[in-house]
Amino acid sequence: MKKVFALVLALALVLGCFSFASADAKTYKVGVSIYQFTDNFMTLYRNEIENYFKSLETDDVKYEITMADGKNDMAEQTNQVQNFITQGMDVIILNLVQTSSADAVIDQIVAAGIPLVLINREPLAYDADGKTLDEAYEGILNNAQVCYVGADARQSGTFQGEMVAELENHGDINGDGKISYIMIEGDPENIDAQYRTEFSVKALTDAGYEVECLDDQVGNWDQTKGQELCANALTAYGDKIEVVFCNNDAMALGAATAILTAGRTVGKDIYLLGVDALEEAVQLVKDGEMTGTVLNDHIGQSHAAVDVAVKLLNGEPIENYYWVDYVKVNKAYVDAQ
Ligand code: GAL
Q1: pLDDT tens digit string along 108-166?
Q2: Can you give the pLDDT at residue 33?
Q3: Cβ proximity of 273 and 245 under 8 Å
Q4: Within a 13 Å sphere around the CA of 243, how many CA atoms are in the beta-carbon half?
């Protein structure tokens, strides 16, 4: 009995030592502000930021993460950034509400000497003088610790167009020699929305196909809005619509419902494309209810963002841009998985 007691005591001492060691651990304060918590894709992204930070913790290094909801309101997000500065965050990860406000926000964070990782919304060509991030922040990017982690939205648009071009009828269901489409756009201020809109169609025209735009509306990345816009377009243009391009899957999921309700059949009398590869969308691709989507790699992007944040915390040199590839997700791809 005494032996058991001694053993328990020894164990308690050892464990005590360990907890003493971890009480000594360095805790880094990480401020993350996401443009809007209700966004489907950014929800996956922000959850993975937290999971991945946790997975990197050791007895000696901890990360205290403050995750803030920008509520799609730039004034609210500016406040959050100011609070992050007052709270003395060691690094900030920022998914801007408005890329046009990048200058002001970046300036404040840089002036406070806090390293910054911009994610998902590239502040490109929105500088007041029409300069790209590179040009506008040449000094800042090089001397201070600011970078952008994202995916090149041109690639996702191109993949959407290519998936249509690769179809047997190249999206020309009625054989009139042109591909008649509708476009459902994300937030028009967002470079992802602009590039996907442009490059999906460009992939078709570059391949030599004639296109006709029947309707182009803004659905702000939102499922309900996507459904509403697609339903309206189906009422207005009926069988003329051969392809429905959505800048993201949330809107494509809404469009899929509208297509079903209108009695149309994807793969037979209409085609439907999204971006993100949300689980529900991949399932629809598998079931033939969506023609294709494009993997917007939230795992790759969140890990790249956290890895560079850790580098910044360790005072290591960084690049100014980190790019993660998109992947084409059509039925053949899903079936092969
Ligand atoms: C895009 C994504 C959209 C939406 C948007 C937010 O990359 O495809 O679903 O999350 O970012 O900025």
Answers
A1: 998 899 999 999 998 764 344 555 555 655 544 555 688 899 999 999 999 999 999 99
A2: 98
A3: yes
A4: 30
Ligand 1 atom showing the smallest separation from residue 42 Cα: 10
Domains plus CATH for the chain? Answer: 27-151+298-325 (3.40.50.2300), 153-295 (3.40.50.2300)
**DSSP sequence for 7-67:** HHHHHHHHHHHHHHHHHT-EEEEEEEEES-TT-HHHHHHHHHHHHHHHHT--SSEEEEEEE
Please write the tens of the pLDDT for every residue from 170-225.
Answer: 999 999 999 999 999 999 988 899 999 999 999 999 999 999 999 999 999 999 99
Helix/strand/coil (H/E/C) assignment for every residue in 50-118: HHHHHHCCCCCEEEEEEEEECCCCHHHHHHHHHHHHHCCCCEEEECCCCHHHHHHHHHHHHHCCCCEEE
Q: Which two tokens stand for residue 110?
A: 């840089």
CA atoms within 13 A on the CB side of 192: 24
Q: How many C-beta atoms lie closer than 10 Å to residue 276's C-beta?
A: 28
- pTM, two decimal places: 0.89
User: Is 248 close to ligand 1, i.e. is its CB under 6 Å away?
Assistant: yes
Ligand 1 neighbour 80 (Cβ under 6 A): no
Q: How far apart are CA 261 and CA 157, in angstroms?
A: 27
Beta-bridge partners for 243? 181, 271
Instruction: Give the position, in ligand 1's atom list, of the atom nearest the Cα of 39.
Output: 10
Dig out the tokens for 305 from the structure: 């963002």
